Amino acid sequence: MISKSKWVLVTTSVALLAACASRPESISASFVSHEKYAGRDCTQLGLDMSNARAELQKFSSMQDTKANIDAATVFFALVPASKLSGDHAGDVAKWKGEVEAVDTASTKAGCKNARPT
Question: Can you tell me the mean pLDDT for 59-88?
Fold first, then answer.
């Protein structure tokens, strides 16, 4: 049988780790309708894709930094920093959705190289 103090320590540790900022690869895309990009030609869609990928990369990098900081602050202070300052999970989800929407619009428009890399 686990002692009460060990049980509290394990429960607290699990709760704190669960509260840490998520890694970008584990964040699901938000729904963005491809209709937003309907009527654009392949050149415009290519520019939209470049922009969406750049924004996704920017916010993914920021989210990774938050997750790294959380790992360090939980280790040293037992409080994830993102609980105090927030994270960028919503932005990562939004831009993943934008990439998917542009990809779908590109495919429907018959653009070459429509698949994201």
Answer: 71
